[in-house]
Amino acid sequence: MKELQDKGLGEIKGSAALTQQHIADILSSPATSISSPDTLIKRVFFHNAILLACRGGEHYQLKIDQFSIREDGGINFQRYRSKNNQRGVMGGVAQKIPIPADPPNSGGPCYDYKLYFEKRPVDAESDFYLQANPRWQETGIWYRKQHIGRNNLSGFMKALAQETGIDVNGLTNHSG
Question: Which key words are in the record (predicted)?
Fold first, then answer.
């Protein structure tokens, strides 16, 4: 079968990949700013897709305790299980993915993550992605204690592409 695919025969289907320009356009768009709960959660989602290579359903399974802030300002992410890291028969060890600290005086992924951590209610569910509070400007509370549903999360990447004007056919939560 592999030999036939190597010869270019058979159907090869995959997700569309983002270019560096697409990534820059998405991160510089108002749709992924840090000025509101809706846009911050999309920005953090995008970081998770790009930096942690989270595939579709893996976003829904993320827990807040998988992230820890290091003394140098960077963040460690513990991946317990993914499509490509099954941890073996005995459970194995989590894969540690370090996110480097942001350069001084610059906003970067670590700044965005820390802002999201700060805006989460302390007694929220352990799920990583929380629902935006529609009354956040009145209350000052950015997020509800409940998680974002699987169906909602599954459309995040396509929504980001539409909101930022990126035209990539086949873009899914696997893209990135």
Answer: DNA recombination
> Which of the 8 DSSP states describes residue 32?
G
Instruction: Kindly report, residue by residue over 101-126, the tens digit of the pLDDT.
Output: 999 888 899 999 999 999 999 999 99
Contact 112, 47 (CB under 8 A): yes
For the chain, give every domain's residue range: 19-164
Ramachandran quadrant class, 79 (left: phi over 0; alpha: psi -120 to 50; beta: rest):
beta
56/83 Cα distance (integer angstroms): 10
What local confidence, expressed as pLDDT, does residue 15 receive?
Answer: 57
With contact defined as beta carbons under 8 Å apart, do 126 and 61 qualify? no
Which of these CATH numbers, 1.10.443, 1.10.8, 3.30.730, 3.90.1340, describes 19-164?
1.10.443
Torsion sign across C-alpha atoms 69, 75, 79, 82: positive
Tokens of 33: 């700013």
Measured in degrees and rounded to the nearest 5, phi and psi for residue 53 equal 55, 40
